Amino acid sequence: MSIWGSLIGGMIGLSLGGPFGMLLGSLLGGKISRARSGAKMGSFAQPQQVFALSLIVLSAKLSKADGQVSREELIAVKDKLKIPENELDQVGKIFNKAKEESLGYEPYAQQIAHIYRGNLNVLEEVINMLFYIAEADGNVSASELEMIESISGIFGLSNVQFKSIKESRKLSEKSNPYIILESNPNDDIQSIRKKYIKLSKEHHPDLLISKGVPTEVIEESKKKMRAINSAWDQIQKLKSN
User: Fold this and answer.
1) What are the CA-CA distances from residue 196 to residues 51, 126, 129, 204, 223 (Å)?
2) Distance CA 199, CA 50 (A)
3) Sign of the dihedral defined by the CA atoms of residues 116, 76, 63, 23, in that order
């Protein structure tokens, strides 16, 4: 069963509470009341469902960041997140509701940070996917970049971690391998190797899936892993010269 199915539902909304619960409640005609908005987050919803909702809502907010919603970005939400046609109507309702409401992205980012507290690698993957969506029209605008960086800060990611994700989005021949491996050119090879091993473990697709990253979007996570491996290969060559 696709992870995008059954996202609009009372049990999911009630378990999430907060802004996500209110958003889903509004789509259910208010069945999820404000009185339950403080419900324990994530007590019923599966991690994959939370991740899927996070991408839909934050993608909707991101699509407004530069003042326009491009056709390419809308296509990206459908195609790049592998949303099947038979579930597009439901996902579209969530996307449009999030896009049209006055509430900003910050409360959602704060709730996501709370749900995935202690799992920074999953939060990094949310940021990675937001770059993926923003790149759909061929250009990440300054306002989109500012929003993604702001969400990264709300998630508790360091500037070094954010720059690593951003740099890994580039083609290998245009990227700085030291930034990807959160290192500096002056660091010795053993120190960089430790960073490489650490990042390899944290971003391994199997680990991400076990922590809630849906298999539907794991291919983009694999690209991050390939960027990490490529960066290590480049640094070994640079250090041997």
Assistant:
1) 26, 21, 21, 12, 15
2) 24
3) negative
Query: pLDDT per position in the chain (241 positions), as tens?
Result: 466 666 665 445 556 778 988 888 888 765 444 434 444 444 445 777 788 889 889 999 988 876 665 566 666 677 767 787 877 777 888 888 898 888 999 999 999 999 888 889 999 999 999 998 888 777 888 999 999 999 999 999 999 999 999 999 998 888 999 999 999 999 999 999 999 999 999 999 999 988 888 887 888 888 899 999 999 999 999 988 7
Residues 79 and 90: beta-carbon distance below 8 Å = no
Considering the entire predicted model, what is its pTM? 0.86
d(CA 188, CA 176): 16
